[in-house]
Write a structure and sequence with these properties.
The protein is an alpha/beta fold. The chain has a single domain (32-182), classed as Vaccinia Virus protein VP39 (Rossmann fold). It is 29% helix and 29% strand. The chain has helices spanning 33-41, 59-68, 80-92, 128-140, 155-165, and strands at 6-12, 15-21, 50-53, 73-77, 99-102, 114-119, 141-151, 169-173, 176-182. Strands 5-4-3-6-7-9-8 form a 7-stranded mixed sheet, sandwiched between helices. Strands 1-2 form a two-stranded antiparallel ribbon.
């Protein structure tokens, strides 16, 4: 039995996109406002290594690939259907060379040294997934690399990012908090204190 598909047309950071989605995927009828808020802070440069962590249908990874080059972009999601759709969307949008991984957090991502990790983690229930994304993401960034994370809550994320990264810049955009943290040391900021 075929799953019904939705199609989204949007222009994000000047990049026209045609995206297949499906019921059960995150934001199946439109590009999520939180994702757009996070992308508005991203500073993509050619040649960067970028990870779209929790890629859903691939919006972030495809925009990153258009700006940085497909060979330096990884898209990862725990849902195999999301990764399959994200790969099809990358191909359909002219960036078929992106890397895709079915991954619980970063466990299935076979790369490191990222310049940028972007994530819109699930935050409605508890902080378990976000905690893993932040801690493991820190370890996959190169020195000077940045993590961008978007959520609706502020304090827990602010405190966690400061504990791991040593500092965080917070942007309030369209009802969301976009956190921007830079890796300045090889060790968590809170280690040994």
């Amino acid at each position: 039995m075929n799953t019904p598909k939705n199609l989204i047309h949007a222009t994000v950071l000047g990049v026209p996109l045609a995206l297949e989605t499906a019921p059960g995927l995150f934001s199946p009828s439109h590009v999520d406002r939180g994702t757009l808020a996070m992308l508005s802070v991203a500073d993509f440069q050619p040649g960067q290594r970028v990870l779209d962590l929790g890629c859903g249908c691939g919006v972030v990874g495809i925009v990153a690939a258009k700006k940085c080059g497909a060979e330096g972009v990884w898209m990862a999601d725990i849902d195999p259907a999301a990764v399959a759709i994200a790969r099809r969307n990358a191909e359909a949008n002219g960036v078929g060379g992106v890397h895709g991984a079915v991954s619980d957090g970063l466990a299935g991502v076979d790369a490191a040294g990222f310049d940028l990790i972007l994530t819109n983690p699930p935050y409605q229930t508890d902080f378990r997934v976000a905690k893993i994304f932040i801690e493991k993401g820190f370890n996959r960034l190169k020195l000077g690399g940045r993590m961008l994370l978007v959520v609706k809550r502020r304090e827990w994320y602010k405190n966690k990012l400061i504990a791991i990264f040593g500092g965080v810049k917070i942007h309030e955009i369209d009802g969301y908090f976009v956190f921007e943290a830079e890796k300045r040391s090889a060790q968590y900021a809170g280690k040994g204190k």
